[in-house]
């Protein structure tokens, strides 16, 4: 992406917004992540992560998936 182009604006720093921002930034895409709360949320806004989402998170690296799986419950059905 050229530096002359405007950044991608993502509204909401929940799991999906943060994941998208990290994904794009890791591919050198300029991103602005907006959150209405004064601090980043520490509680999960999503109750489940589907296998394709987990695969995408794992592909990013950064050790994020290991921490998520360590803290979460695994539902096999």
From TrEMBL:
The keyword Transferase does not apply. The keyword Transmembrane helix applies. Residues 6-73 form the FAD-binding domain. Keywords: Membrane, Transmembrane, Transmembrane helix. It holds the Pfam family FAD_binding_3. It comes from the Bacteria. The chain crosses the membrane at residues 6-26. This is FAD-binding protein. It comes from Candidatus Seongchinamella marina.
